[in-house]
Structures are given as C-alpha cells and as structure tokens.
C-alpha cells in the first residue's frame, strides 16, 4: 500500500479526537457563518411556486425506493417550474428555522445542522426560466439569477469529461461547499462529515425525481477548476463537490 492511499483511507476514519487539542471558532465565541449566501445587490430574484405534493406521480415510498435508478437518457421535454421547486425543496429547502435563527431544519440531515452547501442550477429547459445559471435561496424559496447563457450544455459536458448526458439534461444541480460552515463547529473533523452530507441530499434528489417521474444521475467525475470557474467560485472558500443532471427520462440505466 502506498503512503498516499493510506492517507486517503485515514481521511475516511472518525477524527473527533481533534477536539482534545484544538479550539473551534464556535467554542471561541466567533460569529456563526450565515445559513445561506445572500443575493448580491441588484441581482434578479425569482419566486418559486410553493412545494406541492399533488404533482407527485408516485406516492408509494416503497415503490420509489424499489424503482430508483441512475438515469442517463433524457428527453427534450422541459421541467416545469413546479417540478423544479419541489426538487429544490426536497434537497435543500427549509422547513423552519429554530434555535434563535442558528439552525435551519430541512428535509435532509446534516452533521450539527450545518448544511454547508449552496445549490446552483445550470438551466437548459425549465418552463418559464431563461437558460442560464441560478442559485437557490432556501430561506425564502427563491432563485437568484446569476447569468443568462445558451451554451451551458456544451460547457457542462466539457467540464464533466465529455459526459454528454449531463449537457442533455433539462437542468443540472451543482452543489458547492462553503467549508467554513462546518469548520466553525468541527474544525478539521468537519470535512468527512460534510461529504457524507452531500450523499444525503443527492439521495433525496434521486427519490424526489422518482416520485415526479423524472430522473437523475449523481456525477462526481468533473474538472474541478472548470466547474468552479463556470459557476464563478473562488475554489478555496467555496467550491463544487457534487452535481446531478435532471430531466424527463426515456429509459433507465445503472
């Protein structure tokens, strides 16, 4: 076994013993990082429909689990704004804020309630939305418009090493991590926990897609710099960790 392999194996192990040797920013009394990135001045806000379970095609939870697949073939049909709204709520929506505004209860779990992710959308075909990049604002259940551009299918495919199904989807969910949200509480023990949390939210996307009759496929193979650059991230204080294309499906695979 090489030293590098052992190093990465060790990353997978529990390391909460670090608390015996360090002071976290939370215990030092430093301010908690915000629950979400606020919109910038003058950025366009887009209201989303209230999440509504009446649009679900499958309401049998057992059947959703049984039928869940990674789906890599998408039709040209657009997603509706109602479908997009439901998928966003299912993955990072806020049910309510508690603990004097410091904790957001959501449909997905997160270590210490930190929820360190931001959701960006590469929009190709969503009814009522121009093609381009938006970011989800979970506290208000809105989108903030970042760009309008029609070449996202090409850029998304290129940034994922030629995985054409990514560019052929109706919308690509791109999750970035703001690591300080976890580090504030857990120091270097935060990083394993945050990656586990990414799996929680993507599984919710899978099941929500199945319930809507749409499909998705988790993607972890991408060019880090290209994807960060596409979204407009600095790659240090915020960077992409996971993505998943979503669309109406024509077949299942995987």
How would you portray this structure in words?
With 254 residues, the protein is of the alpha+beta class. The chain has a single domain (44-251), classed as NADH Oxidase (3-Layer(aba) Sandwich). 31% of the residues lie in helices and 21% in strands. The chain contains eight helices and ten strands. The chain has helices at residues 3-11, 61-67, 81-92, 152-159, 164-167, 180-186, 190-212, 224-231, and strands at 45-47, 73-74, 96-98, 103-105, 117-123, 132-137, 142-148, 171-177, 214-216, 239-251. The strands form two sheets. Strands 1, 2, 5, 6, 7, 8, 9 and 10 form an eight-stranded antiparallel beta sheet that branches. A two-stranded antiparallel sheet has the order 3-4. Helix 2 (61-67) packs across helix 7, helix 3 (81-92) packs antiparallel against helix 7 (190-212) and helix 6 (180-186) packs across helix 7. The protein is globular. It starts with a helix and ends with a strand. The model has no long low-confidence stretch (mean pLDDT 95).
């Amino acid at each position: 076994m090489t030293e590098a392999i052992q190093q990465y194996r060790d990353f997978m192990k529990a390391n909460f013993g670090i608390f015996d040797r360090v002071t976290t920013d939370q215990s030092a009394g430093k301010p908690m990082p915000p629950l979400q990135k606020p919109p910038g001045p003058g950025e366009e806000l887009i209201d989303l429909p209230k999440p509504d379970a009446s649009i679900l095609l499958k309401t049998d939870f057992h059947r959703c689990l049984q039928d869940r697949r990674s789906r890599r073939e998408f039709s040209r049909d657009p997603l509706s704004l109602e479908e997009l709204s439901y998928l966003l709520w299912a993955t990072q929506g806020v049910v309510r804020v508690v603990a004097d505004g410091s904790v957001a209860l959501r449909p997905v779990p997160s270590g210490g309630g930190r929820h360190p992710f931001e959701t960006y959308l590469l929009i190709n075909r969503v009814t009522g939305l121009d093609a381009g990049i938006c970011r989800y604002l979970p506290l208000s259940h809105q989108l903030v418009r970042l760009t309008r551009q029609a070449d996202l299918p090409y850029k998304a495919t290129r940034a994922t090493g030629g995985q054409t199904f990514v560019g052929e989807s109706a919308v690509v969910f791109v999750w970035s991590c703001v690591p300080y949200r976890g580090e504030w509480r857990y120091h270097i023990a935060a990083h394993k926990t945050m990656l586990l949390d990414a799996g929680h939210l993507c599984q919710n996307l899978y099941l929500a897609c199945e319930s809507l009759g749409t499909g998705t496929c988790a993607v972890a193979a991408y060019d880090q710099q290209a994807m960060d650059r596409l979204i407009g991230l600095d790659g240090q204080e915020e960077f992409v960790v996971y993505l998943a294309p979503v669309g109406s499906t024509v077949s299942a695979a995987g």
